[in-house]
């Protein structure tokens, strides 16, 4: 087969995790009913690796944990991280953002405190924020029942581009008087 490397590239690209040479071998033998050896596959993988080492390519073939994956070259990581940051911002619901804001401004805070401010159950929002690692458990309150205290994480700081909580906008900075009625007198 003359285009075997393209099939190998397709298998590596389509694999959600690293794919081992043996898995590639199995797929090719089953699809084409031909005998290949692991050595043949490894030679083709070497050729593919060389192909992607060229400066014109933004991705490279990397061996990780005995499997092969296509990954973005390190030179492109800063721009990729901006894309991931932008996409992760879009994934926060309005309820999660409100919950996150309360935790950020009132930390350390209990779930009950957040629910009293929002007026609704916050179990789901807090769970999602914990999963996204935007908040962390900071300890337990000394009040009755010793409820869990929540605070923002280091990832929260990265996410919003701040160095510490004091850099969050103060209420007077974000208050908009454009919707007020009548004249303002001082």
Offer a few descriptive terms.
single chain; 186 residues; alpha+beta; Arc Repressor Mutant, subunit A; 2 domains; 5 strands; 50% helix; WH-like_DNA-bd_sf; WH_DNA-bd_sf; SMC-Scp complex subunit ScpB; cytoplasm; cell division
Strands, helices and their partners?
Blueprint: H1 4-14, H2 21-32, H3 38-52, E1 59-64, E2 67-72, H4 77-90, H5 94-106, E3 109-110, H6 111-118, H7 123-131, E4 135-140, E5 148-152, H8 154-160, H9 171-174
Antiparallel strand pairs: 1-2, 3-5, 4-5
Helix pairs in contact: 1-3, 5-7
What does this structure look like?
The longest helix has 15 residues. The mean pLDDT is 87. This protein has 2 domains: 72 residues, Orthogonal Bundle (Arc Repressor Mutant, subunit A); 89 residues, Winged helix-like DNA-binding domain superfamily/Winged helix DNA-binding domain (Arc Repressor Mutant, subunit A, Orthogonal Bundle). The protein has 186 residues and is an alpha+beta fold. It is elongated. It has a 3-stranded antiparallel sheet with strand order 3-5-4. A two-stranded antiparallel ribbon has the order 1-2. Strand 4 and strand 5 form a beta hairpin. Helix 1 packs across helix 3.
